[in-house]
Amino acid sequence: MTLVRLHNDDWGYESNCFVCEERNEGGLRLRFFHEHDPATGRDVVVAEFSLPDRFSGAPTMVHGGVTLAILDEAMAWACIAVGHRWAVTTETSTRFDRPVRVGSHYRVEAEVVDHVDATMRTAATIVDRRGGVRAEAAASFTTLGEAQAVRLAGVDLGDEHRAYLDR
């Protein structure tokens, strides 16, 4: 099994992402990884997290919008790391099965379910330490061509990253 850390800096542009940018002092600062197991075919993006009460909604619970942001970010990274395409969310649905509590440890996992033409379908789940599902989401992403990605990022991705996305 290989585990590769996913960094915004690897793509040649600065980010202030609320969910994953470590330099964003007001953000969540989650570290995402691409987990690939050739033996089983498992190919997902994962992050482990525990959030302080400044991200609460109802007392002791992580705000639902923050929970959705984590799921969405995991699915976006799955589009890049697993699906090899830049993409933007076009539709999402989320089911909040049980509360995500501040101060507790969780893991988010995201995968690409399907990729047809310019649409990538993804799924993500937040689980607790016992494997209990806390929240799950499904989303459709519209994939971007290189010119669109460069225009949005405002930078040249470079040959190495172009090759990665072209796999």
Based on the model shown, name its key terms.
167 residues, alpha+beta, Thiol Ester Dehydrase, Chain A, 7-stranded antiparallel sheet, 3 helices, 20% helix
Describe the protein's architecture and organization.
The protein is an alpha+beta fold. It has one domain (2-161): Thiol Ester Dehydrase, Chain A (Roll). It is 20% helix and 38% strand. A seven-stranded antiparallel beta sheet has the order 1-2-3-5-6-7-4. A hairpin with a 2-residue loop joins β5 (106-116) and β6 (119-128). It is globular and about 45 Å long. It starts with a strand and ends with a helix.
Layout of secondary structure:
Layout: E1 2-6, E2 32-37, E3 42-49, H1 64-81, E4 86-96, E5 106-116, E6 119-128, E7 133-144, H2 146-153, H3 158-165
Antiparallel strand pairs: 1-2, 2-3, 3-5, 4-7, 5-6, 6-7
